[in-house]
Give the backbone structure.
Amino acid sequence: MLEFFSLRDGPTTEEEPAVTLEAFAGQTNASAVRIEVGEDARLLLPHLEQIRLVEVNFPVFGDGRGYSAARILREAGYTGEIRACGDVLVDQLNAMVRCGFDSFAPNHPLDPTALKAALSRYPHPYQKAVDPNRPVWAYRHG
Amino acid sequence: MYQYDQYDQAMVDARVAEFRDQTARRLAGKLTEDQFKPLRLMNGLYLQLHAYMLRVAIPYGTLSGKQMHMLGHIARKYDRDYAHFTTRQNLQYNWIKLSDAPDILADLASVEMHAIQTSGNCIRNISSDQYAGVSADEVTDPRPLAELLRQWSSFHPEFTYLPRKFKIAVIASAEDRSAMRLHDIGLELVEQDGVIGAKVFAGGGMGRTPMIAPMIRDFVRFEEIVSYLEACLRVYNRYGRRDNKYKARIKILVHEMGADEYRRQVEEEFAQMKTLGLDPPLAELERIAAFFAPPAYETGLSDAIDLSDPDFAVWVDQQIAAHKVPGYAIVNISLKPTGGIPGDASSDQIDLIADLAEKYSFDELRVTHAQNIVLAHVKKADLYAIWQALVAADLATPNLDLIGDIIACPGLDYCSLANARSIPVSQKIQQRFADIERQKDLGELKLKISGCINACGHHHAGHIGILGVDRKGVENYQLLFGGSGAEDVSIGQIVGPGFDEDGVVDAIEKATNVYLAQREEGERFVDTYRRIGMKPFKEALYA
């Protein structure tokens, strides 16, 4: 069972405790930030060059604000690690990856077999997101 | 109509495999009910009072004879030989075993159908006009865009855990047959300077707090609609309320923040999102539109109908709508037999309707939000044969848009949320007004019943609405007048203290008597109500 896994190439980001968004705003040298639900990921956009890890917390899996947070960071060009933390379930992983998450620290360890199946189940998505997958319409129209 | 290619088929097949796996994990105890619930809901599987209910998507209400036959087959094999057509143009089975659900989804996938996102806090089935493609007043067929949006919204990675469910309707004519402005987002296709695009309304809905959606953009070009909707959804996903499920719909966000502020935030998001390449090329819309090209209508057909059979003449007068092609008609099949359950159909009835669609209507049929069925391309010369077949199957009640054409939710007979029964009330009203001549004299009168304040029976939008509540353990029915889900959209007003089951039937009869006494030439019930106000009705009801 996996308590942490990463889809990033190379070694995992060094473990530096992530600071809160509020603390991040008050200091200049932190490189790891944790976003809680309801916090505005856009506040990080002016500082993306110094950030290497953004943790996005999911207190309950049904609160989907974190998906928007991750996608906003990727749309703004952020290439560092985005980690989904908390109530992260295997059936949510595919959507998380498509929104730009590339590492996962779930509260409940994940079954590697179920995880692999979940990530490979849908070969071509219907819509463009921030993952490298081309949408179905792009295949249809060359 | 639309046909799947390999990509669409792979998607529904993958979904069946995924749900089979999830169900197996649930049955093996590896998933808790709490963890399983959002997964089964995303496949339309609800736990109801007595059993699982499965809701099948009928995208924009259109389906083929083969698909309709499959719905009948499933009712026969896995349910109790009937099914229920809903106000969202979908279909529900009421007595499903969890262990059968993956097989049912596989059966659906074999005819290009699914139950994806028919529940859960995600983008639901896109609804549309049941007269799409055949009414003379539309600017274009709205269904190609609806199909494009079906695909865009399926498994959307960002918008699958929204604050609450999200319903989109697409129409393309000034006459609104889809309650468009009572949706979370309503799109009305319009033409501007020779270009077709969408007028966008956001924040409508019924439920506990009915709201009519304000317009937030007067025109979005086709090639930017997806990114515009992404912007609308993102603002909602980020700022919609999650602290209270009853305040979580987008209507509350738009209302609390104001339409102007919501619009401003959407525009800000859209300015950025439209540069990201999210929109499919117009060629994709054209590819889809080719499937909705008009069928091979015959030309030179006569418009004459032999009305010498008086019962047939009554049915033709009520159930037939004008078709844009000479010699053809739109047939409305009533699923509201007097004393029946609104929207229910037996397996045999479903098969018969499928046969009629195959034989007489270019193998295509539509489900309406008023829980009836439409055959959209019928030769007038075939009407009599169709009517005879419908009569034999108890599907020929000539009550379209009359007081007997009641919209009702399943109510306390099935639903775990309901406070009161809806079905017996609708049956009693139908029986009270069983005389079809009397119904025709009352004219268009849209009566809608919900068994609780969640308003699945659209009571806010009824010319006459009935809301069932629980008053100290006794079912009590409140009356509302003056609502409409059509282009004259309005929210009904509560008349006064509620009634018991028989009392509400009496009250409706009294109200119709006020209307008959006061109406002016050409006025419908709702028109008279709007002109004379509540007072004369109250006086009659509470005298």
Notes: Chain A has a mean pLDDT of 92. The radius of gyration of chain A is 15 Å. Chain A touches chain B at residues 37, 40, 61-65, 67-68, 71, 75, 89, 91-92, 94-96, 98-99, 114, 117-118, 121-129, 135-137, 139-141 (CB under 8 Å). Chain A is about 25% helix and 15% strand.
